[in-house]
Amino acid sequence: MYHSQFRPVERGRRLVSKQQFTQQNQNSMTDRSAALCWPSSLLMPLRKSRQIVLTLFAGSAIVALSGCGGLVLNGSGAFPRGSGTSTSTVDLSQVSCGTQGLTGAQSKACSVYLTSAASTEVLVQLTSSNPALKVPGVVTVPTGALSTGFDAVASAVSNAVTVTITGTVGSVSKTAAITLYPTQTQTAPVTLSKVSCGTTSLAGPTTKACSVYLSGAAGSDTVVNLSSNNAALQVQPSVTVAAGSSTAGFGVTALLVSTPQSATLTASADGVSQTETIQLVGSSTQTSSSHQVNLSWVAPNSTSDPVVGYNVYRSVSGSGFQLLNSTVDTRTSYTDITVQSGTTYDYLVRSVDSSGNESAPSNSTTVTIP
User: Closest by alpha carbon to 8, among 37, 38, 36, 47?
Assistant: First the structure.
């Protein structure tokens, strides 16, 4: 292969030697912002040479062209003229779960919000002030988004507690406060369910033990109002069912009437009423003989839990036992004057201590009225 060297003709500019250009280039590189533009005439091909070797620079240099390619040289590299790297600041705006309270164990959807759309992914740090409400440690707001969601998981608590969720981006923090409440067990309300005197007829003059009944144990002392629509059947204004109990006893008094009459006994509590209808037997239908049952018992020996009185119960013809005395009887005897001919009665007694607690029942005794 043939090689020839050719010295280009100067065209209005003077070519410099390799050594001179290298020195000039080194000098110019001390000012990294200086602009260079090499004459295009130096890069023109030479027609008569089969291969031209033209050395422009000696050593390693960074070249930037000014006015040629629209680039400027600076200390960190080349960037398009007029471009910038600054962006607007995006801060955390809000943390919200859409509620101020949660009841029981559950998961609640929450969100974090930015002041403007994220130009790049934004990491939001999350913390909870109480382990009863758990949140993820960090959530990411995607590029171009204003918000992202996360789940807050509440545990069951025995008492109400307020928990603060805190979200942080950089030096900006936002909070959301949520109160956790214990689960309330829903139960049917306790209501008045029955009033009963254990009989459908009374021959006066006589006193009869009756009772009111609730649908369950009373949560607190419950007052039951009492009334009669007939003056011949007298009853006290009210009776109280003690907290924890479902029944209370009271007495009614049937007066002597000359002709048969009907009396309605009404009990009312918290808007609920129950009734019992009793036939009052007239004096003309009563037999000349009257009956009564005398009961007596031996007081129990108890030193650890002294007895203050007794309750007497009666069952009519095999029905349930009903309390006869309206108040605790301190005596060890009781006379039932409300018995009727042709009826069988069973009796038992329970002792009562100073706290109102009853003992187990005594043995029962049966009496048939002729």
Answer: 47
The answer to pTM > 0.85 is: no
Q: Long-range CB contacts (< 8 A, 24+ apart) of 28-33?
A: 29/61, 29/62, 32/73, 32/74, 32/75, 33/72, 33/73, 33/74, 33/75
Do residues 66 and 36 lie in contact, with contact meaning Cβ atoms separated by under 8 Å?
Answer: yes
pLDDT digits (tens, 9 = 90+) for 198-208: 888 888 788 89
Q: For domain 293-368, say whether CATH 2.60.40.10 is its number.
A: yes
pLDDT (0 to 100) of residue 87: 41
The DSSP element (H or E) to which 24 belongs, if any, is helix 18-29
- Strand order, beta sheet including 307-316: 322-323, 307-316, 344-353, 365-368
pLDDT tens-digit map of 93-111: 999 999 888 988 999 999 9
- Enumerate the CATH 2.60.40.10 domain ranges in the chain, comma separated: 192-285, 293-368
| pLDDT, tens only, 280-308 | 887 655 544 568 899 999 888 766 778 88
